[in-house]
Amino acid sequence: MIRHRFSAEDFHRMAEAGILSEDDRVELIRGEVVELSPIGKRHAYVLNTLVDLLSALRDQGVLSVQNPLVLFPDTEVYPDLALLQPPRTQYRNRLPEAKDALLVVEVAETSLDHDLKVKLPLYAQAEIPEVLVVDLVRDRVHVFRKPQGAGYQEAQALEDGELEVLSLKVPVKEVLP
């Protein structure tokens, strides 16, 4: 089987040409266009909760919800949430890149395996300093810090207690549905 690999530039040209529409839930992973899982009720609830809670960090970063994040020339992902370096005006004429991300959050139900096995190593390789994966299958929040190679030096799974994100402390039970 022959696979055709695309760059982020090709990916955008496909959208401009109408091959991909704005409504297509896809991202570019190492040159391949990958379909995203549909968003269910629990996923939407948790994402809205996180937006509400993390909006307290507005003075420390720009909250970006389900928007593109360019990790590499052949990889453009759409994390559920990203906290980006301020000011927001720097993103007026360019997409945020890995170097801009302070935090990335993925909410995972049907996408848990993909988020942990495919996207997490990409986030580590792109040196995203902190990644949260809200695991709706097991009702826990995975916290990853200190990227090194294709992994993170610090990893923990929280089912209760407090989640510390930058200067903000949030009860884990408040994040989970």
TrEMBL record:
This is Dioxygenase. Keywords: Dioxygenase, Oxidoreductase. It comes from Thermus aquaticus (strain ATCC BAA-2747 / Y51MC23). InterPro entries: Nuclease_put_TT1808 (IPR012296), Restrct_endonuc-II-like (IPR011335), Uma2 (IPR008538). The keyword Ligase does not apply. GO terms for molecular function: dioxygenase activity. It comes from the Bacteria. Residues 9-167 form the Putative restriction endonuclease domain.
